[in-house]
Design goal:
The chain is globular. It contains 11 helices and 17 strands. The strands form 5 sheets. Strands 3, 8, 9, 10, 11, 12 and 13 form a 7-stranded antiparallel beta sheet that branches. The chain starts with a helix and ends in a 7-residue tail after the last strand.
Length: 390
Amino acid sequence: MLSFLRKGHVFAIIILFLLSGCNSFSSEFVKIKPLGVHPNGTVYIGMESCKECHLEIVNSHSSTSHWLTSSQFVTQNFAPITQAENTSFILDDKTKIAFTAINDSIYQQAYKPPYSTPFFSKSIDLAIGSGTKIGYSFLTWEKNSLYQLQGSFYKPNLNWINSPGYPSRFQAFRPIFPRCLECHTTFSQSENWESPAINNRYNKNNIVFGIDCQRCHGPVLDHVKYHRKNPNDKEPKNILKFTDLTQQQRLDLCALCHSGVRSNRSQPAFSFVVGDLLDDYLSPQGVGEPDVHSNQVGLLVRSKCFIESEKMDCSTCHDPHSNEKNNLVKFNNRCIECHQKVEHVTFKSDQNSDCVNCHMPYQESKIMKIQINPDSIRSVMVRTHKIDIY
């Protein structure tokens, strides 16, 4: 009898140890805290949970233009603006736009001659743009309404300039509508999400900055929960597989933000999800030649490479998880993978391996123009995605 009791006692200790082990296992993970919740029920949990299994991919993605395309403005995170040669510029109407550090923030202030006291002063609250090509534009809150400020930072020459599209006269605000944020944030909830009348009022606590994992992979909450409970199951569960998408679905995923300015149809911004047909949400592309600045997909589908391929899409050449900007060796190698025996009949050069600069040259944008100084407005140069003979 005593032996039986001892065995039972030992068994109870083992069970208690196993239970405590389970609790210890679950406590290894950071508690899932939603960063945002879509009105359709989708919960956005950010990339921290993805690091548990995909640390290398998440760290790599954190340096991409997609991830850096929007953020809350923190001065120390934008070192280039502290190196600006000038902290102001003057518009044609003699208004001076100046940028001043006040406490821990940067303010845009406007002055009239003799430029002694500002008649306009607003803090920079959000930054738009990755800073890798042109620079940054800045947004400010007016209660719950979101506006673009008139000054942008042009990184190539470390100077402040008149924001693209602004007139060369003082204009206090330009409202930022949901379609703008649909390409610069993972999610932003407008106050009247389902109303056909758009406005620029948002729930400040329901914005997910940058383009993170969920934007391209769909909802991940159930995926994370499953694999936390089943860490030995290496087959991805409860998540969209990119390889299961059709060619058109893969193109539409990128075309949401890389097919030019397209207006919403019957669906509000942030309705489109991976796997949907984009034309059901946005008006089809126009019949004219796509612009190099914003319509990369429209140019790609006009290319012979694309027309003669059954599988080609944006990811054929681009790895969305990596910062590959200006890595011509990598891009040229991707061209050579499909064009290993090309004969250049009309052009001979020692640079035959430089496919990109010859067949995808930089061209002037017809819609994106910037005012570098008061006397000149020039087009932004962007690499065309129409692969052709130039």
